[in-house]
What we know:
heterodimer, A: mainly alpha, two-stranded antiparallel ribbon, 13 helices, 2 strands, 1% strand, disordered C terminus, B: alpha/beta, 6-stranded mixed β-sheet, 4-stranded antiparallel β-sheet, 26% strand
Amino acid sequence: xxxxxxxxxxxxxxxxxxxxxxxxxxxxxxxxxxxxxxxxxxxxxxxxxxxxxxxxxxxxxxxxxxxxxxxxxxxxxxxxxxxxxxxxxxxxxxxxxxxxxxxxxxxxxxxxxxxxxxxxxxxxxxxxxxxxxxxxxxxxxxxxxxxxxxxxxxxxxxxxxxxxxxxxxxxxxxxxxxxxxxxxxxxxxxxxxxxxxxxxxxxxxxxxxxxxxxxxxxxxxxxxxxxxxxxxxxxxxxxxxxxxxxxxxxxxxxxxxxxxxxxxxxxxxxxxxxxxxxxxxxxxxxxxxxxxxxxxxxxxxxxxxxxxxxxxxxxxxxxxxxxxxxxx
Amino acid sequence: xxxxxxxxxxxxxxxxxxxxxxxxxxxxxxxxxxxxxxxxxxxxxxxxxxxxxxxxxxxxxxxxxxxxxxxxxxxxxxxxxxxxxxxxxxxxxxxxxxxxxxxxxxxxxxxxxxxxxxxxxxxxxxxxxxxxxxxxxxxxxxxxxxxxxxxxxxxxxxxxxxxxxxxxxxxxxxxxxxxxxxxxxxxxxxxxxxxxxxxxxxxxxxxxxxxxxxxxxxxxxxxxxxxxxxx
Lengths: 328, 231
């Protein structure tokens, strides 16, 4: 029981803080943080656990978003079914390109994913213009029916939905981190050949990690489509290909809560700095240089061990203050 | 000798790296529960021989079979699943994972979660379970690597230079462990420590410049001075 509580306590604290944020900060900001966090956790998993840096996350985001938008524009009105199609499309694209991509080393993996982003961008902007409506995008805001229970087509309803989805996603990734599969992923990152000595097919491990990570990204794309109500090729813009990598590094590569912290920092800085400076990316650029020089651990990667040390010291002091038991 | 019944049988194995031949027509037999040692100078081809058996180097010619099943052409992870486990020389464990996680990887692959046998051989590992493997000493890493490899009850353990760089007390401990392991498993040990080899091996192959130049099978003949003659 105590162990089960320990497992959940970090998640509960993190998401309680997000709820507190909702009280003090504007709803669009909190929704954007939630979406960006889900968008980034796949990238964080690939980079932190498997050792793959991906500049192709906008491609998977766009696939999820367009699958949802196509459904809502052409076929139905239920946004939940639209999200279901986004997930299916995420699995499909990952299974289609994954067997080719995961054979590559990390640097080529980054570039081939960037190439995929460029392909998806031009497919949506030019080739499939008849269906995607090109730069005008697919407007789905008014085509969504309200869903029973939580109406995710409303801003408040979307926050509740995104909050629940984000919590489930984090619980899933925490489970993955603690599982043997998580250890296998770490092992492929450290030495894939050694993993073969133990009888593991490292290709299958990398492929499964790739599918999981990019399906999560597609889920973020689907939710983004529902939230914004329009999907245009801009979502797959190669110019934004580095965003999830930046947020991952900012938050702390391979840390569970890094994507949330990174998303808060990135979205916050974007919102605040862009009010004063037009080129807010410049500040992010300098900050990244500073983080790299300071030890590559990112914000949460630096804070986490200190917090753990503090908590451990507090726990030890508490135990020491208890009077010693004297047996009769 | 019956090749079908052998735990491991290598016949006329030839291995090349690009244009250069590194192993020439090697023949090697390992019977069940036998300790076989391969001795030779650096660069003689001993590690290449183990890597070829484990599926990491593709032979140019010859055959390798375990309990009658052909190993050539199989993926290395497939060979490991068949119970032919390779313990490499470099003592590189998964350094960011704890000892427990390292063992879990071995257990999950083999569905053998009986760690008692591992800690029976290496009691020290019990106290190191939560330590990151990167912080272990060379001897502790070797214990972890062998401990991980024996999960699942392998048929053949291929162990490359297990005592290199280790303290004499740990070498003595490993010697006893190898003797114990040989009650259930065949061992192929590549080693330059001739006194150790001669103390535990039932059969010794001397390898020189990629050729098996001698095979010592008589316990009385397996002595350091006899092995040295061929190196």
